[in-house]
Amino acid sequence: MVVLNNLLYTEEHEWVRVEGGKAYIGITDYAQKALGSIVYVELPELDAEFSKGEGFGVVESVKAASDIYIPVSGVIIEANEEVVDDPGLINSAPYDNWLVCVELKDMEEIEGLMKPGAYEEFCNKEE
To answer: Tens digit of pLDDT for each residue in 58-75?
Structure first.
């Protein structure tokens, strides 16, 4: 399992990379391994607004379908169409292939996300 030190994480296995007032969001290496071969990704429309914890998309694999939850409130300003066209990119490089970018509504929500060490411990307990 790969955990990058420059990202923040959620208990639902999403990662967050904050750049100024924006946050790029994807699913972790742990999540893509648990799902198996990803065959379908559904992402929201641009300008859609979500509150922290709401479902914003779906990832389907040969094993299961899984909702993806937004870890921070905001407005979708980018959706990664490359992963919609080629969902397997998430399996091959989960941290290079983000799903959406949001304009952050509340920077304080970032404080509630897990740091890399805490996420690694969390995953080890789940196994």
So the answer is: 999 998 899 999 999 999
CA distances from 24 to 17, 18, 37, 86, 122 (A): 5, 6, 22, 18, 22
Domain ranges of the chain: 8-111
DSSP character for 114? Answer: B
The whole-angstrom separation of Cα 20 and Cα 68 is: 23
- Domain 8-111 fold: OB fold (Dihydrolipoamide Acetyltransferase, E2P) (2.40.50)
* Entry field: residues in the chain: 127
Q: Which of 55, 60, 53 is nearest to 31 (CA)?
A: 60
Q: Count CB-CB contacts under 10 A for residue 109.
A: 19
- For residues 72 and 120, what is the distance between their CA atoms, to the nearest angstrom? 20
**What's the chain's Rg over C-alpha atoms?**
13
pTM (two decimals): 0.95
Q: Count how many Cα atoms sit within 13 Å of the Cα of residue 53 in the half-sphere of its side chain.
A: 2
* Tokens 């607004």, residue located: 49
What tokens appear for 86 in the block? 């080629």
